[in-house]
Design goal:
The protein is of the alpha/beta class. It folds into 3 domains: 6-155, Rossmann fold, CATH 3.40.50; 162-363, Mur-like, catalytic domain (UDP-N-acetylmuramoyl-L-alanine:D-glutamate ligase); 372-503, Mur ligase, C-terminal domain (Protein-Tyrosine Phosphatase, Chain A). 33% of the residues lie in helices and 22% in strands. The chain is globular and about 65 Å long.
């Protein structure tokens, strides 16, 4: 692909805000002729740059020139918003950009590269917006930050342009389910509401293209790390258990600090909904003393403001009392009762009618790859919980099992302490199937508890072994307690391969 960009580049210089000059075209990845810049075709090159024209006279908030690192859902959404708000935008991705995101960048005329990072181009920017999976410790990002220039998350960047109010949800476990459930309740009640963040939809893109009254945002600790000025109108903290500790130097306090950034900038007019039963959260609240309206939820203790469980009834005391039998909930298990309480409290803060909340909690369909029933084959039940990438998620999954279980576990270990699962495994698990390249830690943890432990390296092989080991009226549970990147593209890929293998039985 050859594209003449010199004239477009001169126009961009002439029309950029206040006559300022954007950074010059990078030398790397180009061959220059007298009157042209030759652009390598992204379809076949591992290193390529596309140049497109941007002409917008607006004066942006974070400087004039933004580089977006990472061209996934988050990065492309940020780039679209940046272009709309008048920035000179350049997107850089060290890997290969997926076709759907590459097409979006081309459609919007946004300049990008893939297969490399042009460091001179990056350092010349006024601001970096980075995708959450890229740590701030990367040397060139740290150098950029140390120079006094801003490094922002997509959430932080989009915040000033967001006219909607926000419900922000985080926690080590349950945040996707709670985010989707909260969105379901509000949408069913007729609220003009969006769903964004870690759940898979770009917050920035929705800010650029939609006109919502409320947006429910699922936030991981990674997304919260660069949150400085952004503020949630309603924040929800579900739980804190060890997760992603490799990102935080195996320092639990650093991980907790990241999670508690969800409270940042909230005032006495805002709401903080939190798990009263979580000792880590309670201790941190005592230290931090948040300046917000507090609404705890508990499965053990009555709450005068907030929600709790009593005599198998969900009870929420916000504005007026809401009650509902736990037997009518669409989501089963203790952890899902907590998720339902959190979502119900948020709905009552918005004064959604009790009847509407009750109906939504009854008919909600859970997220894919989270305790997802796949099939019953010759009386054997197969459940896909591939989204369980840490010990606590798997604990909840095992805790909800009421039949002898063949447990498929393994992948990339995040510093797991499998002893936390020992009692449940002894009570619930008849056989273990390891699904990962390195299984020594799992085998060592459970070899004295479970007699049968098998090692596999594919979903098809794991399902085949599970089918042989399980009997009628028993369950095969994929709940890995680990990340997926040793054998699979991501947890979705792992879950989809598991489902395909089950359906081929």
């Amino acid at each position: 692909m050859v594209q003449n960009n010199q004239e477009a580049f001169r126009r961009r210089q002439a029309n950029f805000p206040h006559g300022s000059t954007p950074p010059s075209l990078p030398k790397e990845g180009h061959s220059r002729g007298k009157n042209r810049v030759e652009i390598l075709d992204c379809s076949y090159s591992s290193c390529s740059i596309h140049h497109c024209n941007t002409e917008n006279p607006l004066v942006p908030k974070f400087g004039k020139h933004i580089v977006v690192l990472g061209a996934g859902e988050s990065g492309v959404g940020a780039a679209i918003l940046a272009q709309k708000e008048g920035y000179f935008v350049f997107v850089s991705d060290k890997g290969t950009i997926k076709e759907e995101y590459r097409s979006a960048l081309l459609e919007y005329g946004i300049e990008f590269e893939e297969g490399t990072h042009s460091l001179d181009r990056i350092q010349a920017a006024d601001c970096l917006v980075k995708s959450p999976g890229i740590p701030s410790t990367v040397p060139f990002i740290k150098e950029f930050s140390d120079s006094g220039k801003k490094v922002l998350s997509e959430i932080e960047f989009a915040g000033p342009y967001c006219k909607a109010k926000t419900i922000c949800i985080t926690g080590s476990n349950g945040k996707t389910t709670t985010s989707m459930l909260t969105h379901h309740i509000l949408k069913k009640a007729g609220v003009k509401v969006g769903l964004a963040g870690n759940v898979g939809y770009s917050f920035a893109k929705q800010v650029a293209q939609e006109d919502f009254d409320w947006i429910v945002i699922e936030l991981s600790s990674f997304q919260l790390e660069e949150m400085c000025d952004f503020k949630a109108d309603i924040s929800i903290l579900l739980n804190i258990t060890p997760d992603h500790l490799d990102r935080y130097d195996y320092d639990m306090q650093k991980y907790m600090d990241a999670k508690f950034r969800i409270l940042q900038n909230q005032t006495e007019k805002d709401w903080f909904i939190y798990n009263f039963d979580d000792p880590i959260i309670k201790a941190e609240i005592e230290k931090r003393k948040p300046n917000t309206q507090m609404a705890p939820f508990s499965l053990k203790d009555e709450q005068s403001v907030g929600g709790y469980l009593a005599q198998e009834q969900l009870i929420i005391n916000i504005h007026k009392q809401f009650t509902m039998s736990i037997h009518d909930l669409a989501l089963k298990g203790k952890h899902n009762t907590q998720n339902s309480l959190a979502s119900g409290i948020a709905a009552r803060v918005l004064e959604i009618r009790n009847e509407s909340i009750r109906e939504s909690l009854t008919d909600f369909v859970n997220v894919e790859h989270r305790m997802e029933f796949i099939a019953k084959v010759h009386g054997i039940e197969f459940i896909n919980d591939s989204k369980a990438t840490n010990i606590n998620s798997t604990w909840y999954a095992l805790e909800s099992m009421n039949k002898p279980t063949v447990w498929i576990v393994g992948g990339v270990d995040k510093g797991n302490d499998y002893s936390e699962l020992a009692e449940l495994v002894q009570d619930k698990v008849k056989a273990i199937i390891c699904l990962g390249k390195e299984n020594k830690k799992i085998i060592k943890a459970f070899k004295g508890i479970v007699e049968t432990i098998v090692e596999t390296e594919s979903a098809m092989e794991a399902v085949a072994y599970a089918y042989r080991l399980a009997q009628k009226e028993e369950t095969v549970l994929l709940s890995p307690a680990c990340a997926s990147f040793d054998l699979f593209e991501n947890y979705e890929d792992r879950g989809n391969q598991f489902k395909k293998a089950v359906r081929s039985l």
